[in-house]
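[job 4471] stage=fold_predict status=RUNNING
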Amino acid sequence: MHIVASNSVRYRSLLLKALLKRPQRGALSQSSVNAMLSNSSFTIDENALRCYCKHFSFDESHVPATYLFVATQSELLQLFVHPETPIRPLGLVHTFVEFELIEKLEVGQIYQFTVTLEMNEKTERGQGFETLGEFSLDGKTLARYRSGYLMPIKKSKPKRGGAVLVDDISAYQHQTNLQTSKASTSAYASVSGDYNPIHLSGFMAKLFGFKAPIVHGMDMAGRLLSVASKQVGNNERVNQCHFSFKRPIFVSQMLDVVSDGSQVLLVNEEGKTCVMMSASQSIS
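[job 4471] inference complete, writing structure tokens
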């Protein structure tokens, strides 16, 4: 199934469709499993990019890897809310995202963007799937990202008890602290355009089993990329990175940013890793 993206649709109207969508039960059709959406006139908005880079203190002369995901949220949602795709957008768990910048993308240049839906096997936790987004020019791929998701199965929460196990981060060096807040979450929503209510509404968060609104995973990814970018120096840039989202991060939570030189972790107050980032760089 091939879907042609619309550049005129509003992101908030797509969010409303996402809230209301209930995919049909039953076996997946071959067309829905192989669904692809394309935008033959994708461009990077200069003002939006500038606001994003300012928010994370990125160098504005390069498009940060994480911005590729942010810039194509409309295309992703158009794919998710399409009536023939077996996706329930509300309550999705973002499990990972990885980026590869092959060549520098330019502001104002018209690119071909395609995103392909790849369904995985269903597990006890729910239905997993991945999306592959690619940016190309004249038939040549310049950048891509792969993102993983889980549509969880609603079930009772397991009882917790006993001692809290912590992750061994003895080989990691403390870099900085990171404080989340309503203000920082709202600021990220503004620069990214992601107003998913699970991040902004306590009621919606509790509806999906969270004690408080959860921070945008891509906000945390942007902050970790900012730390990694400062580590590699001014003459290099991060062109490949992978983010694993291990545990939710809540608004008004203090986290530690630690690094061992190849990985950067976000660790919560309990000593558990919430986000793990690995990255490599090339001379620009």
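[job 4471] summary: The mean pLDDT is 87.
[job 4471] exit 0
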